[in-house]
Structures are given as structure tokens and as C-alpha cells.
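User: Please fill in residues for this 442-position structure.
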């Protein structure tokens, strides 16, 4: 037990002792006040401390989050046996040792009723402590999960921003290289290229901060960019666009086509005799960029910004993968077209959401059971007290005691024993038998 818990129990002892001394003690003396506080301390420290120790021991061995059912079942067993033993111990010290009540009357008469009443009160307090422990552990686990998800999201967001920031200087560097070549070869084309490049660069600045753009927007940009490449390479490069109209409203990562077109030019040679043919088309939910393979020898190793950038950005946005196919005749890249705009860096997939919903349902079931148990422990002793104070010759309290008790037991069996898993298994077994019977008749 912690120091804070011990101090709380001492305060409870003091308040309880003063309360019983004020309202239930006839001889108001200092000795009786001290005795009343000591007896209250006995009950508080032994019962409260014992339940605290058992609760902490069970929580260390069996987590409320990972072993919910085992922890709950052992908690119910511990509540019943530990509290009964602790209450009887305290009552034995109080009545037999302090008040000199004969042991033969310990389990009968008024002392027997006090035993029963105190056990129910102890069960109520213990049930409250276990429920509080469960809610505390669940809140800690929820807060921990939220913090972890925020860290994951921040990390993924930073990574995504870093990838997008590669696009701006990468595009500018390659475009300036093209422009530098055209200045010597054809100054007039270089001037037209500069004008077109300003329009394209405006698109780069507008789109690079977006997570997704429509296929139609990306195609329009790609066609303009292909015109620039055509200006430089003339009939050495041939472009073919064949994207279905229905796919144009789908989404892709921005500047993906520009990066892949650059890759085609960068890694392949193109001449009038052997032109580089680049096809852009849609198929089976993918936007495909395909070129005939005319691989050139690399003077230096590629930095790998283009394709790897696209792969990493898609990995952060969706579970759909980017596919690369290569043969002796062609090189093909398939990028998935997404049917709806998604929130980037989503950290909870369908399985996790289903698990979360199931966990929420489980928490509601446990809260309902503990609420039922606490209500039973509160109202049944109250009804017994009312019954014995008013008409002790007719003990009607047994009816709600057993009726409600059966309900609590049934609730416990449903939550910790059979539960919905059993129902689902029975339904699956029944459906399986029906399928087998149908096969036999066919």
C-alpha cells in the first residue's frame, strides 16, 4: 500500500470512530472515544488494507487490459473469501476479545447479524475498489495509446513533409538542366521552354503541399510537361495517353507522373532511329506508366529520389502498394488510383477499429455488471435492515435477496463465463450443420 492510501484509511478511521462515538455510544468519555477510533481503525486498516493488498497483487499478476476475464473472475473470488475472512477476524477481535462476548454466540443472534451485515458492506467497498482499479487501468491504457498514436502521426507527418519537400528542388534542378542544353542547341526553343516551365513550376508550387490530387489534374500537368520534353527531344520521344474517363476522378499523389516521366528519360536513351515510347494508361484501378526498355549506362549511381519518393508517400497514405514490373522489353510502374480522399497518416485500420469497438463493448459490459453488483450490495442490506426493524417476525427480505442474487450470478456468467463468444460459436456451429445437411440432400 502507498503512503497516500494509508493516510486515507486513517482519515476514514477517525471519521468513522467519531461518528459511532457520537451517535451510538451512551457514555461519552475520552476512553470510549479513543476505543471507538481504535476499533474503527481496526476495521478500516484490516479490511481496507487487505483489499488493497489483494487488489494490487492481482493487478500485478493479471492486467485488467490484457487478462480482463481472468482478472475479473479472480477478483470476484478474492472479494468473497478475503472479505469474509477479514470481517470475521475484525469482529472476533471486537466482540470476543474486546467486548467479552462468548464465542458460542459469535455466529448467532445480533452478533451473527452484524457479521453478515459487515461482510456485505465489505463486499460493497471491495467491489467499488475493484471497479475503480479497472477504470483507472483502462484510462491509463487509453491515454498511453492516444500518446503513442499522436507520436506515430507526428512522425509520419514529418516524414511525409520531408518527402514532399524533395519535389521542389528536384524538379527545378532537372528543368534547369534541360534549359541549359536548349540554350546552346536552340535559343528560340529555350525561350519557349522557359515560358512553359514557369507555368509548370506554378503547378508544382500549388500541388506539392497537397496529399492527393485528381488523376485529371495530374494528366493535364503531365501533358504540359511532355510538351516540354518533346521540345527538347523532338521525334526521339513519343507519348501516348489512354486513361479511362471513369478513372479521371480518382486520386493519386501529386507530381507522381512528372517524377516517373523523368525516370523514363533519365534511365533510357532516345534517338530518332530508336525512339523512347512512353505510355500512360489505366488498368484495374492502377495508373500505369510504361516505356520500352532502352537502358543507358549510368555514369554515377542514381539518387533514387523519383520512384522511392512515390513508394514512400503511398506507404504513408494507403495500404495499396506501388508495383514495378521489368522485363527485357519494357519497364512498367503501377501506382494505385484511390477512389476517395483519405486522411493521411491514418494509424487505425479496420482490424484495429473492430478491436476498439469490441473493447468499448466489453467495458460497457463490465461497467454494467459492477453497477449491478454494487447496487445489490447496497440495497439488499438496507432492505434487510428495514425488514428486521419493522416486521422481524416475517422475513420477506429473502425474496429480493435470492431473486436479485440469481440475476447478479446470471449477469456474471454472461460477462465472465459464456458471453457473446459462446453465442457466436453456437451460431457458427448451427450454420455449419445446416450447410452439411444441405450438401447431403443435393
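Assistant: Residues filled in for all 442 positions:
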Amino acid at each position: 500500500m502507498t503512503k497516500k492510501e494509508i493516510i486515507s484509511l486513517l482519515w476514514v478511521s477517525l471519521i468513522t470512530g467519531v461518528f459511532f462515538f457520537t451517535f451510538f455510544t451512551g457514555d461519552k468519555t475520552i476512553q470510549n472515544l479513543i476505543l471507538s477510533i481504535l476499533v474503527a481503525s481496526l476495521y478500516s486498516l484490516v479490511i481496507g488494507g487487505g483489499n488493497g493488498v489483494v487488489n494490487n497483487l492481482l493487478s500485478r499478476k493479471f492486467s485488467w487490459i490484457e487478462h480482463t476475464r481472468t482478472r475479473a473472475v479472480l477478483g470476484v473470488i478474492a472479494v468473497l473469501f478475503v472479505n469474509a475472512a477479514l470481517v470475521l477476524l475484525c469482529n472476533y477481535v471486537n466482540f470476543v476479545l474486546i467486548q467479552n462476548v462468548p464465542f458460542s454466540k459469535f455466529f448467532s443472534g445480533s452478533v451473527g447479524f452484524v457479521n453478515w451485515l459487515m461482510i456485505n458492506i465489505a463486499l460493497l467497498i471491495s467491489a467499488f475498489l475493484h471497479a475503480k482499479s479497472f477504470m483507472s487501468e483502462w484510462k491509463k491504457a487509453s491515454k498511453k495509446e492516444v500518446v503513442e498514436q499522436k507520436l506515430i502521426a507526428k512522425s509520419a507527418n514529418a516524414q511525409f513533409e520531408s518527402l514532399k519537400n524533395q519535389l521542389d528542388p528536384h524538379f527545378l534542378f532537372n528543368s534547369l538542366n534541360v534549359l541549359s542544353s536548349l540554350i546552346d542547341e536552340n535559343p528560340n526553343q529555350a525561350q519557349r521552354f522557359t515560358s512553359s516551365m514557369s507555368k509548370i513550376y506554378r503547378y508544382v508550387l500549388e500541388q506539392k503541399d497537397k496529399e492527393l490530387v485528381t488523376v485529371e489534374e495530374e494528366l493535364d500537368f503531365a501533358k504540359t510537361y511532355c510538351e516540354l520534353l518533346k521540345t527538347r527531344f523532338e521525334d526521339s520521344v513519343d507519348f501516348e495517353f489512354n486513361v479511362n474517363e471513369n478513372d479521371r476522378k480518382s486520386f493519386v499523389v501529386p507530381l507522381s507522373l512528372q517524377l516517373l516521366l523523368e525516370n523514363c528519360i533519365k534511365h533510357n536513351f532516345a534517338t530518332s532511329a530508336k525512339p523512347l515510347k512512353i505510355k500512360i494508361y489505366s488498368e484495374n484501378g492502377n495508373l500505369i506508366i510504361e516505356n520500352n526498355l532502352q537502358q543507358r549506362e549510368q555514369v554515377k549511381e542514381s539518387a533514387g529520389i523519383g520512384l522511392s519518393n512515390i513508394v514512400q508517400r503511398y506507404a504513408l497514405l494507403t495500404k495499396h502498394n506501388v508495383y514495378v514490373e521489368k522485363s527485357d522489353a519494357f519497364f512498367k510502374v503501377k501506382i494505385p488510383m484511390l477512389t476517395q480522399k483519405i486522411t493521411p497518416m491514418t494509424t487505425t485500420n479496420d482490424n484495429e477499429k473492430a478491436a476498439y469497438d469490441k473493447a468499448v463493448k466489453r467495458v460497457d459490459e463490465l461497467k454494467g455488471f459492477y453497477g449491478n453488483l454494487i447496487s445489490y450490495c447496497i440495497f439488499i442490506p438496507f432492505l434487510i435492515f428495514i425488514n428486521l426493524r419493522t416486521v422481524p417476525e416475517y422475513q420477506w427480505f429473502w425474496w429480493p435477496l435470492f431473486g436479485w442474487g440469481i440475476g447478479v450470478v446470471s449477469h456474471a456468467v454472461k460477462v465472465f463465463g459464456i458471453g457473446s463468444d459462446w453465442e457466436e460459436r453456437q451460431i457458427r456451429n448451427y450454420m455449419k450443420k445446416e450447410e452439411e445437411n444441405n450438401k447431403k440432400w443435393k
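For context: The chain has three domains: 1-143, 166-336, 357-442.
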